[in-house]
Amino acid sequence: MTTFVAPVIDWAALSAILVIAGTGIVGVLVAAFVPASSRRTVQVVLALVAPLAALAVVAWRWSVVVGGGESTLVAGQLAEDGPALAAQAIILIFAVVGFAVMASRLPNGEEAFAPQGAAAPGSAYEEAARRAGLEQTEVFPLALLSLAGMLVFPMANDLLVMFVALEVLSLPLYVLSAMARRRRVLSHEAALKYFLLGAFSSALFLFGVALLFGFSGSISLPDLGTAAATTVGMDGMAVVGFVLVLTGLLFKVGAVPFHAWVPDVYQGAPTPVTGFMAAATKTAAFAAILRLLYVAAPGFGWDVEPVLWAVAIASMLLGTVAAIVQTDIKRTLAYSSVAHAGFALVAIVSLSEQGPSALLFYLLAYGLATVGAFAVVTLVRERDADGNVTGEATHLSQWAGLGRRHPVLAATMTLFLLSFAGIPLTAGFVGKFVAFVAAADGGAWPLVVIAVIASAAAAFFYVRIIVLMYFSRPEESERPGADAVEPGALTRASLVLCALGTLVLGVWPTPVLDLLAQAAKFVV
Amino acid sequence: MTLLHYLVLSGVLFTIGAATVLTRRNAILAFMGVELMLNSCNLALVTFSRIHGTLTGQVMAFFVMVVAAAEVVVGLAIIVSIYRARRTVSVDEPSLLKN
Amino acid sequence: MIDYSWLLVAIPLASAALLLLLGRRADAWGHLLGVLAAAGAFVVGLLVFLEVMGQPSEDRIHDVFLYSWIPAGDLHIDAGLRIDPLSLTFVLLITFVGTLIHIYSIGYMAHDAARRRFFAYLNLFVAAMLLLVLADSYALLFVGWEGVGLASYLLIGFWNHNLEYAVAAKKAFVMNRVGDMGLIIAMGLLFAAIGSVSFTDVDAAVTAGALSTAQVTAVGLMLLLGAVGKSAQFPLQAWLGDAMAGPTPVSALIHAATMVTAGVYLVVRSRLIFEASPTAQLVVACIGAFTLLLGAAIACAKDDIKKSLAGSTMSQIGYMVLAAGLGPIGYAFAIFHLVTHGFFKAGLFLGAGSVMHANGDSTDMRTYGALRKVMLVTWLTFGACWLAIMGVPPFSGFYSKDKIIESAFVGEGWQPWVFGGAALIGAGVTAFYMSRMFFLTFHGKARWVEAGATVAPDDPRPVRHPHESPLVMTVPIIVLAIGALGLGFALTLGNGITGWLEPVTGHYDHDAHHAVLPVPVITVTTLVLVALGIALAWRQYGMSPVPLTAPTGSALTRAARRDFYADDVNEGLVMRPGQHLTRTLVYADTAVVDGAVRGTASGAVGLGQLARKLQNGYVRSYAAMILAGVVLAGIVLHLVRM
């Protein structure tokens, strides 16, 4: 029997994760012990301060790590290196802007989440909870715990940690998806679908882990490949295991054919959650894919490119054509997110040296625009006959003429959409550019051509929304009219940050690209 | 009975689990299919652990159990709250979100 | 001053941003800021120009490094400006004409509630256009390229309360996208071949023969596709007519003087690529020659004064593209004509705007007539521009267009005859349609009734109260008309514009090559054709009465009226599916979906619908999809591994 050797734990390197997870747990206690009157305030402050603090920690670790200080931690289970820290920083940025939107209220004091998550939609209990002004402040600790999982994901250097991180990030999101204040039936359905498919895919992931473990006798990513060199005759198992693990991760990024949950969940989940989830989950999962592909895959000595090609092409095309025929803004953005998963994948398809930094930049650009766009969606609201603000006006026809009534808001949305479309001087353009260059550098020319064509086609449906906002008149329809509400201070701040980021990264991306270029090296 | 048999059993369980998810309308049953898949993974992990003579796989199995338990909590909570709203737990019933 | 040339872009951009951000607070003075920004850019441009003028001609090309824009591995792109005679010529044209049009817009948009926004867009356009011509790489040029597209889109659709206008804006956008694809692909090809898209590197590589003929031809044709889209040349010409839906100053600035000439700029800027590929160059010349006739024919048939002018713009740009496609002999003349055209066509549009302003915004020339009596200044200035565009000496068009016609006759084989012939016929037709427009508008009998006059109840004539426009509108037109009168002569003084452009366009010895016909013969024939055109127009529209509604006309006229069915073709190929996508899908599936539309809506929708079917809402089929994906991926990986 082997003797147990306690691993050395470098707490400093884990401090960002600990800050977030710790705050999450504190948040649970706050929900239990702080009086209702100040509970929400405390939670919001915690939820906003924690990511900022973690961001500072990541910046500090960056100065320690980048330029030679890469290392593995906790007996090789975690890796602290440039790509991991960069991904963490990006996720934390999304968390700051995303949580700000989550914490915002409408001018009438309404928040985005159900007053009482356990109450059945339409029940007397729910009505009573609404009247009593209850608020489900557990939303924030849940989001923080999910964020903790996301932070572990990029660092995960073995399959077990990856699995646990996957679950830690997913489980709170399943719950958050069910928490919408309005359209709760949709929200529940989204949560159920997300949960069942997520559980299903993580079971697939786990089976892959088991097979890879059986194949190599190790679950550490760098060791998987080395074992491949010595083990003979079990290649089949390794292939199946690898595909299953990759599937589990591609599911999280929402790449075709593992995307089916994306439109339904993005549409049904509370919009602020959708924004955060779309940006941050994708980044975390892509960071894990990066490590899998760059650290583990080369050792196997076979070519994963064809699979990635197929997935990237399918995602770009399906995401684009499906987005074109959508009538719901959240669903359109969801399909666009599927297409973006494909575009992002293009960056790393040929495993070129610039792949990681290009991918991370792409995700940063995409995520800022995503959080921003969904934040705008939270502001466009229907009105009932008395002029009271009700649910979000998500049908595209309700967005007609928004540009005339709310020029600034529409212009902000336009900026995000242009960034999605990859129009120059927005972050999206630079992101697409570096991603395509990275692919082309690795020789994936045909893919780049397809990607360029797909991005031109995709521009169409973004422009369609712009056209709608500026050049269409609201039509008489059975749907209630829509109007934007004044954003709360937090949403406003979040929108400003996202818009500024999108613009600055488009006009002057050099500093960020330089930073990310330093981060390209993985610790093995 | 060699260790290979355990692996075959694990594969069979995994397949049954996946088939359950694909065929059962009842959300609880579908969820049980997922649990079955997770447990088949556990079996495979433990077996491989035995084959390789390390503890890694067995330790992993414990982690998986914990995770599965957490998943049950979340899953059942969601399913129950859907049941309360709709009086059904059919996964085919709630399809307002589509296309 | 050259180091500060970034101010050229920054000033109007800052002004646009300020106007948009300040919102209504800037309503009172927004238009003045807009004018100031344009004028400021002109002053900067002038200072840079004077500095460059002071340098010996071989030192007149400057690359101003701004900052490193996208460092992506080995391929990095710097943002920098190229200051040389070519870009400076454009800068002066854009800022000068731009400033005049800004001033004019003060009056033209005086009653529009959103005037400030209009000026913001105009400033944005000027900034983007300057970026386009000042960029030192295809990538940065593309930024400007998209920017002018966006500004043009915003401005065409400015009166977006009108649905038709919004559709026109969309159309311009879609067709421009097709062209943009060409530019993107050209950039991609250049990247692939030489790893850079800066003009310096590309020129060096092409000169060194680093690209194969096939590569150069491909790049050239793709660049041409971009040029064709932006400059409304065949086969992407149809959007220009509809773009006239925008406010008239926009038509003058964007769709006559500046943006639509960007294609010509691109071809001249990429001249080494085209020179390395005779095929691509020949295609350029052919497209130019064909479009100049096509546009002229469209201009003859339209009764809408702006659409007729749009046809004329197509045709005149056809001349420029033809000249640019002729090779070294033509570049300088293409730019020369571009400059003079910028003046007289802007003058014509502003004049047309003045006429519309006076006629209750009607654009139908059949309801004009005899306006010279009430609009003396407009009549005189329009007349000057009219003579200029026809190429009547000593007006500016004579100097520039005649040179192109002469150059078209130089060469061997069938080409000089075809190109020269087209240019010659085009000159005659130009004279006809411009005279038709001039006489229909200002001469003949009034086909309107003065407001307040007693009218028979069955009189079909519309009631109007035409009046001369205010000074703020007429002064810019007068300045442009002076340009139309004297610019051509002024620019040929000494070595003139050809000598000035030589560092960019290369030296060409005009004495070493001879036209297939003697030059005086060409000039005289041109003038005779022009005279014939005027006479024909006078007989038909000046002397004889003009019916209020257009006669059916010949098959050719009918075809030209409908832009030679370009719309129908485009509609089938691009717009129908596009409209189907934007409208019917947005407004659920209930509204406006008729069978025909459904039928023509193309593959994208079909595929999209298929994708929707896949997304059937059932968790179980989603799970099956995931599993199928796993199996497929496994198979693929397994096969690859073997």
From TrEMBL, chain A:
GO terms for biological process: ATP synthesis coupled electron transport. Keywords: Cell membrane, Membrane, NAD, Oxidoreductase, Quinone, Translocase, Transmembrane, Transmembrane helix, Transport. InterPro entries: NADH-Q_OxRdtase_suN/2 (IPR010096), ND/Mrp_TM (IPR001750). The keyword Thylakoid does not apply. It is found in: Cell membrane; Endomembrane system; Membrane. Signal peptide: none annotated. Its EC number is 7.1.1.-. GO terms for molecular function: NADH dehydrogenase (quinone) (non-electrogenic) activity; NADH dehydrogenase (ubiquinone) activity; quinone binding. It is a multi-pass membrane protein. It is an enzyme of class 7 (translocase). Residues 156-455 form the NADH:quinone oxidoreductase/Mrp antiporter transmembrane domain. It catalyses: a quinone + NADH + 5 H(+)(in) = a quinol + NAD(+) + 4 H(+)(out). The keyword NAD applies. Belongs to the complex I subunit 2 family. PANTHER family: NADH DEHYDROGENASE. NDH-1 is composed of 14 different subunits. Subunits NuoA, H, J, K, L, M, N constitute the membrane sector of the complex. This is NADH-quinone oxidoreductase subunit N.
Automatic annotation (TrEMBL), chain B:
NDH-1 shuttles electrons from NADH, via FMN and iron-sulfur (Fe-S) centers, to quinones in the respiratory chain. The immediate electron acceptor for the enzyme in this species is believed to be a menaquinone. Couples the redox reaction to proton translocation (for every two electrons transferred, four hydrogen ions are translocated across the cytoplasmic membrane), and thus conserves the redox energy in a proton gradient. PANTHER family: NADH DEHYDROGENASE SUBUNIT 4L-RELATED (PTHR11434:SF21), NADH-UBIQUINONE OXIDOREDUCTASE SUBUNIT ND4L (PTHR11434). InterPro entries: NADH_UbQ_OxRdtase_chain4L/K, NUOK/Mnh_C1-like. Pfam families: Oxidored_q2. This is NADH-quinone oxidoreductase subunit K. It comes from the Bacteria. Keywords: Cell membrane, Membrane, NAD, Oxidoreductase, Quinone, Translocase, Transmembrane, Transmembrane helix, Transport. Coiled coil: none annotated. It is an enzyme of class 7 (translocase). One of its GO terms (cellular component) is NADH dehydrogenase complex. It is a multi-pass membrane protein. The keyword NAD applies. Its EC number is 7.1.1.-. GO terms for biological process: ATP synthesis coupled electron transport. It is found in: Cell membrane; Membrane. NDH-1 is composed of 14 different subunits. Subunits NuoA, H, J, K, L, M, N constitute the membrane sector of the complex.
Automatic annotation (TrEMBL), chain C:
Keywords: Membrane, Transmembrane, Transmembrane helix. Pfam families: Proton_antipo_M (PF00361), Proton_antipo_N (PF00662). One of its GO terms (molecular function) is NADH dehydrogenase activity. Signal peptide: none annotated. It is found in: Endomembrane system; Membrane. One of its GO terms (biological process) is electron transport coupled proton transport. Residues 69-119 form the NADH-Ubiquinone oxidoreductase (complex I) chain 5 N-terminal domain. InterPro entries: NADHpl_OxRdtase_5_subgr, ND/Mrp_TM, NU5C-like, Proton_antipo_N. The chain crosses the membrane at residues 6-22, 29-50, 86-106, 118-135, 181-199, 205-229, 250-268, 280-301, 317-336, 374-396, 416-435, 471-497, 517-538, 622-640. Residues 135-422 form the NADH:quinone oxidoreductase/Mrp antiporter transmembrane domain. It is a multi-pass membrane protein. One of its GO terms (cellular component) is endomembrane system. PANTHER family: NADH-UBIQUINONE OXIDOREDUCTASE CHAIN 5. This is NADH-quinone oxidoreductase subunit L. It comes from Miniimonas arenae.
